[in-house]
Amino acid sequence: MANDLKYNRVLLKLSGEALSGPENFGIDPNRAEDVARRVAEVKEMGVDIAIVIGAGNLWRGRRGLERGMDRTTADYMGMLATVMNALALMDAMERVGIVTRVQSAIEMHAVAEPYIRRRAIRHLEKGRVVIMGGGTGNPYFSTDTAAALRAMEIDADVLIKATKVDGVYDSDPQTNPDAKLFDHLTYIDAINRRLEVMDSTAVSLCMDNNLPLLVLNLWNPEDLQKALRGEQVGTLITGESRT
Predict the structure, then answer these.
(1) Are the CB atoms for 151 and 211 separated by under 8 Å?
(2) Is residue 1 in a domain?
């Protein structure tokens, strides 16, 4: 691996909207290819990459709950949708030459391997990208929490949440032009301020296991590469405060 890297193995958390088109719904093959190219650039640096992807472009369980849907049913529907996104991303990445494996926490042998920790690590060691679908396989847990869990299981050096904003702000930058961007937060700050970086379960899991959490803009050219080299990009969340 390259000597100038700060992080050699990463878990990349993507929202389902990363694959959606202008209407923030469905799967846009062009967007999937854009994500694949971003991943290819990082792979060329010699980084091991695992990916957990959400399902907000296909299904939002909150809408079902508002109509009286059973929470467990809504969550399982979301888990299935993440596998659809994982397959779409796998196809895009293999078209740009990245060897990819999809693993699912919900077994569906015709389209994905079952998630097995040691197998996932072996794929990473062989230079393959592993896309982990199906969340944790359990209702009541978000894909953010699934990302934190999988990051720990594969011994990732950092959990990167790739978004469409430059990091974590003290308020919504789309509605408040004076919103402040944090370059660093502690886990406790992120939880107490209710900044919606990730859900509190995911942040707590990172805190309990001292896993750095980095929030950055996936669409800023080279930001992902800069972050992996340890340059200041986005918002880094750790257990230590900075003065």
Answers:
(1) yes
(2) no
Q: How many residues does the chain have?
A: 243
Q: How confident is the model over 11-69, as pLDDT tens digits? A: 999 999 999 988 789 999 999 999 999 999 999 999 999 999 999 999 887 778 888 89
2 domain-assigned:
no
Domain limits for position 219: 9-238
pTM listed for this prediction? 0.93
Q: How far is CA 209 from the centre of its chain?
A: 18
Domain annotation covers residue 243: no
Amino acid code (one letter) for 49:
I
Q: What's the CATH number where 86 sits?
A: 3.40.1160.10
- Total tally of structural domains belonging to the chain: 1
Q: What is the pLDDT of residues 154-189, one digit of tens each?
A: 999 999 999 988 999 988 888 888 899 999 999 999
